[in-house]
Structure formats: C-alpha cells, structure tokens
Amino acid sequence: MTQHSRSVSNGFRGDTVNGFNPKDASHLSEHDRKHIERRQRVLGPAYRLLYRCPVEICRGKGVFLYDKQGNEYLDAYNNVASLGHSHPRVVAAIHNQLETLCTHTRYMQDQLVDFAEKLVGTFDGELGKKGCAMFTCTGSEANDLALRVARFFTGNSGVIVTTEAYHGNSGAVAAISPSLGENSPLDPFLRLVPAPDSYRMPAAEIGRRMAEDVALQIADIERHGGGLAAFIADSVFSSDGLYFDPVNVLAPVADVVRQAGGLFIADEVQSGFGRTGTHLWGHVRHKVQPDIVTMGKPMGNGYPVAAVVLRPELVTEFGRYFNTFGGNSVAIAAARTVLETICEENLMANAVTVGGQILDGLEGLQKRYECVGDVRGTGLYVGVELVKDRCSKVPDMDRALAIVNGLRDRRILISATAADAHVLKIRPPLIFTSEHAARLIEGIEQTLRSL
After folding, report:
1. Are 133 and 118 within 8 A, CB to CB?
2. Could you write out the DSSP letters of every residue in 204-217?
3. Whole-number pLDDT of residue 9
4. With contact defined as beta carbons under 8 Å apart, do 162 and 193 qualify?
5. Using CA of residue 282, residue 284, residue 285, residue 289, what is the dihedral sign?
6. Are 289 and 255 in contact (CB under 8 A)?
7. Are 276 and 243 in contact (CB under 8 A)?
8. How many Å is the maximal CA-CA distance in the chain?
9. The CA-based dihedral angle spanning residues 156, 160, 164, 167, taken in that order and rounded to the nearest 10 degrees
10. Within the chain, which residues score under 70 in pLDDT?
11. pLDDT confidence of residue 1
12. CA distance 403 to 390
C-alpha cells in the first residue's frame, strides 16, 4: 500500500459529507494551496470544496470533466448535468433562445404555456388532469414555495421530514433540512421521523412503521397547539442513505397526513426526470398521489430552472406570485429540451440497463468484500453501504470516505451520503454507457483492494 493510500484511510466528515478539510492542506501542491487561500479570502469560509484533494475543473463534455492539464475524470455523481456536460441540444436551445429573447413571465409567450402543459401532462391522476405549474430558479426555491403554499392553504405550521432530510438552502427550507448539521437551526414546528432503513428493518414492516411514526409526530404537533401543514419527502431518501425499496412506504404515510389535514409534498429534485429508470418521477414507484411536486437540479441540465406542480385549488386564494428569473424564456427553452431529450433518446431505458449492470458489478464485489454491507439502487441511482462487519451493521465512515477519495485519485468522481457518511452515492448522467459502468466498477474494485 502506498503512503498516499494510507493517508486517506480516514475521511473528513466535517459539516459536509466528503468535504475538504481546510485545516489539512499540507499534502496539496503550492498552486492548489494558494488557490484555496484566495478562494477562502474572497468567497468566505461558508463555501465548501469536495474531496481530500479538491478537483480543479476547467471544462466538461458528456460524462467527463477535465482539469487544466487535460486529465479526464469520469463523472458518476453530478446529476445536474443529467444529459451529460455541455449537451449539444441543450447548448443550442439556450444559445438560440438567448439570441432571440430572454424575459420574464409577465408577457404572453406560447413556449411558456406549451411547456407548462407538457410538464403537467407527465403526471398521473389529478395533477395530470388539472394541475398547474409555477416556475422558480432552483429546487430550494421550489421547496420554499411549496412550503409557503402548504402553510397558507392549511393554516398550519407543522412540518414532518426524515431525520437526515435535505430540502434546500433558503431560510425556510434550510430550517426543515436536518442534514445541514447542528449549526443550522431547525424550525420549531418541525418534527422528524426515521427513514425507511431497508438494510436494518424487515421489508414487510417498513411502511406500517413509517406511517405510525408520522402519526406520533402529528399527535405531538397537535398536543403543542399546532396543526400539520405538510409531510415532505424525497422518494429515494437521498440524504438519509438512499433507500429505494420497498415501494409501499409513502402511500400509507400520505393517508395519515391527509387525515390530519396536511399536504403530501413529493420532492423530486434528486429523484425526478427519469433518474430511477422505470418512471419519470420517483414518487410514482410508490404509487402515491402527491398534492404538490417540486423539481429542480437536472431540469435545465445546468441552466437554473425549477418548478412546482400542484393542485390548482391550493393557490386559488394564495395571491400574487412572481419570480423575476423563474420561468424566463431561456430557462423554459432549456427545460423543454431536457424533457424532450430524455424521451426521444430513450434515456430512462438506458438508465434501467446500465444501472442494472452497475448493480450486478457491485453485488459481485459485495460477495468478495465483507465491508460491503448492502448494495441498493434503481435506474442510475445507486447506494453502497459500508459497514465494519455484517453482523453488527455498524457504519464505517472511514472506509466509505477512503473509497470516495481513492476513486477521486483514480479520476472517478462519486460522493457519500447518510448521517454517518458511510453510504457511497453513485448518480451518473443518464447517458452513462456499459463501458463507463465497467470503468466505475473496476475503479471501485481497485480501491477496495488497495484498502
């Protein structure tokens, strides 16, 4: 084992999973240290970098990122560019629209209404039949707006999320995002429930337990003189540790929430737009009908665009809504092209095929390495849980972050998730191929062997 391999055996958790430790820069080149010093001076200490050795990127194309020296990095993590970096169709759509017009939603524009109709039409049930779309710039804004609507419509303030949920960085949604850590204050009307841990709980009991947990928290809210406004969840529980199955978890929860007068909000910022392979929207796997759906990240393949789709009666009395840049002409052109490309290039089918190959490869590694406790995923979203041993199932953060950083040294980019940062988070672009999957698996195996 090399000295460098030993030096990354213990990862840095900090307040950002897989974050760079600014107090440990002695192993970096003089150039990198100076760049980080400049960055911290002008951007301030609140910004974070990823990896023990941060990556300096100057361009991206397809599934690859490149540094100044032209070194190629396989991007198996960034789902913002879910069609791949600098996708030619999206680039052309943005360029052509920017040459023509870029303005806000207070003028009549056919493309805005056309896209809203197309977007709403991708949903099942009442949302698909009569839902309406409200556009924002980011997923944080979308969740902020959804929360405002839920509290206005119900007249209540209580919100329930999972214990490591992340729903954004505005003041309101950061306050319902416990994964941001102890320095980020939580809303006094927030209540937490455990995520559906399929590795440690019997599958047949998960849905019932979660519904019971939600009911208990609703009772606690009501005992303190409040009422429930909303339960909000990401259907693959991305920040909790990635739990994909069983898929009978959220429908019972939605029933309990509605009985208490609250709304069910499906956060599709990470699980939407075909990420799960079998469905365009993650909540559909759970056969649950949300009252509100939020989306963002991959919606514009890098261009800032996000949205809320909801039942129209929720905003009948809501009043005026306007967002200077939300739903602008260029944003809509980007979003329309992304949705069309996903459908026309059969990228959901590709996610199923290539995602299955990644799972097969990881399950093969699981048979050979005791530290690989669980492998789970759907489409091109995969989690690998690292444990100290399979009997105790104790999380192994050090090994997980060593793998993440060992892959980074092999120029393969993934990250980690969960409260203990012990679950590998693999989330490649939807254009990932079998060749890319094989390179990823080979890199993981090499890293496991080196540890």
Report:
1. no
2. HHHHHHHHHHHHHH
3. 41
4. yes
5. positive
6. no
7. no
8. 65
9. -50
10. 1-14
11. 34
12. 18
**Tens digits of per-residue pLDDT, 128-164?**
999 999 999 999 999 999 999 999 999 999 999 999 9
Closest CA to 411 of 105, 160, 74: 74
Contact 268, 281 (CB under 8 A): yes
Tokens 């080149």 map to which residue? 29
pLDDT at 183: 87
Tokens of 429: 């672009």
Examine residue 290 and say whether the peptide bond preceding it is cis (omega within 30 degrees of 0).
Answer: no
E strand or H helix at 233: strand 228-233
Is the pTM higher than 0.90? The answer reads: yes
User: Can you tell me whether residue 122 is helix, strand or coil?
Assistant: coil
CA separation for the pair 182, 438 (Å, rounded) = 39
pLDDT of residue 10: 47
Q: Dihedral of the CA atoms 423, 427, 428, 432 (nearest 10)?
A: 100
41: its two tokens: 């001076």
pLDDT at residue 179 in the model: 94
DSSP 101-143: ----TTS--HHHHHHHHHHHTTS-HHHHHH-EEEEESSHHHHH
C-alpha 219, offset from chain centre: 30
Token pair listed for 237 = 């529980």
Q: Output the pLDDT for position 257.
A: 98
Map tokens 């698909």 to a residue. Answer: 128
Task: Give pLDDT, residue 14.
Answer: 60
Q: Are 349 and 343 in contact (CB under 8 A)?
A: no
pLDDT of residue 7: 40
Which tokens belong to 214? 């939600």
Q: Please write the tens of the pLDDT for every residue from 316-329.
A: 999 899 999 999 99
Do 135 and 323 touch, CB atoms closer than 8 A? yes
DSSP secondary structure string for all residues of 353-371: HHHHHHHHHHHHHHHH-TT
